[in-house]
Amino acid sequence: MRAPRSLSIAFGVMLALGVAVIGCKRGDEASPSPHAERSDALPTQTQEDSGVAALPEAQTDAQPSASDVQDVAAAGHGQLPAPRLELIAAGEGEKRELRYVVAAESKQQLRLLITMSTQLSQEGSPKRPRAQPTIQLDLEVNAKTADDGNIRADFLFANATIEGGDKQRSEGMQRQLRMLEGLKAWVEVDPHGMVQSSGLDVPELFRESAKEQIGFMERTLQSLVVPFPAEPVGKNAQWKVVSTVIHQGARVEQELSYQLESADGNTGRVKLAITQSASAQAFAMGGLKADAKVELVSLSSSGKGAAEFDLQQLLSPMSSIADMTIILEMSNKQGAHQRMQLDSSLRIDVGTAG
User: Could you read off the pLDDT of 238-270 as tens digits, one per residue?
Assistant: First the structure.
């Protein structure tokens, strides 16, 4: 059995530093497994080996909301619980409530640098480590406070480029990343930074086919805001945000933890930590024959980072590193069987563009 050529688990690991996307990237075609004849092998996809899940090319004013995407993604899983913030420790010393107070209109230019490496292992084949090119995304952000006190940030993907990597692979990724340029999105949060709603400009025609990418991009933008407890907190205060997300049809439990290192006036710094896990369950993967199926054996990830915040600006410079392990089993009616493991390491840096 051969591994699919386009093994693209667009897996959103949100270290509150911004997006932390870890996933199974598109790999080279693997050698046949000794456990199955070539005639029984699960087919590979023929899409270009780009490593990036792209949105379809089209222009529209349609805006699927976060709830639209969640309803589609949650099919078969019941209604997903809303994310909840839990205060673990109020901290020490003088305590105060941390709230965003953004001016009538606040403009920012941000740059996201995403660097990732992967290693795919499968039965009967050697491990295949691969360093991915660095992805650079430039965002123009316009934030303003609404009459109800909530804060809305409008995003424009101004530029998307690739740095490093082999030429052929980088060119393929660059072509797909270009589709992001000009894309518009928005996120609305309450004064404590908890997401209330979000949306992405995607053609109505492609909502279903691009729902995984839509969900990924929304989670990316949502994670650019550091949330705070409603209660007053002091130095070394700790809190966490617990949520359930859907990736490739799999239900993943996620916990983001924060610790307040410092707060002086409107600025401060928090330490970040993330854990994600998923138990055995069905897993959605395109490009396979109708009689083929994929089962998620296990998923686990952990990461850490830090973020500086300014309560007068919604989005903050951040940095994080995360690691993930995903184990999958593939089979078909002819008895072909293959277990694969993908280990990923991701670094995300969010700073000011220019």
Answer: 999 999 888 777 899 999 999 999 999 999 999
**Res 73: pLDDT:** 40
Q: Side chain identity at 242, as an amino acid letter?
A: V
| Listed residue (296, 209, 281) closest to 7, CA to CA | 296
Cβ contacts of 224 within 8 Å, gap of 6 or more: 18, 19, 110, 187, 315, 316, 318, 350
Write out pLDDT tens, residues 157-192: 899 888 876 677 777 777 777 777 888 899 999 999
Closest CA to 57 of 187, 198, 177: 177
Q: Which residue has the tokens 């920012």?
A: 108
The predicted structure's pLDDT at residue 206: 56
User: Residue 103: exposed, middle, or buried by beta-carbon count in 10 A (0-12, 13-18, 19+)?
Assistant: exposed
What single letter denotes the amino acid at residue 228? F
Give the residue carrying structure tokens 């199926």. Answer: 293
Q: Fill in the amino acid letter for 247.
A: H
**Cβ distance 301 to 22 under 8 Å?**
yes
Contacts 24+ apart (CB under 8 A), 238-242: 238/87, 238/88, 238/89, 238/91, 239/85, 239/86, 239/87, 239/88, 240/85, 240/86, 240/88, 241/83, 241/84, 241/85, 241/86, 242/83, 242/84, 242/86
Name the DSSP letter for residue 33: P
Give the pair of three-digit tokens for residue 173: 């990724």
Alpha carbon distances (Å) from 338 to 138, 172, 239, 294: 40, 28, 41, 10
348 half-sphere exposure, CB direction, 13 A CA radius? 29
Half-sphere exposure for 28 (CA within 13 Å, toward CB): 14
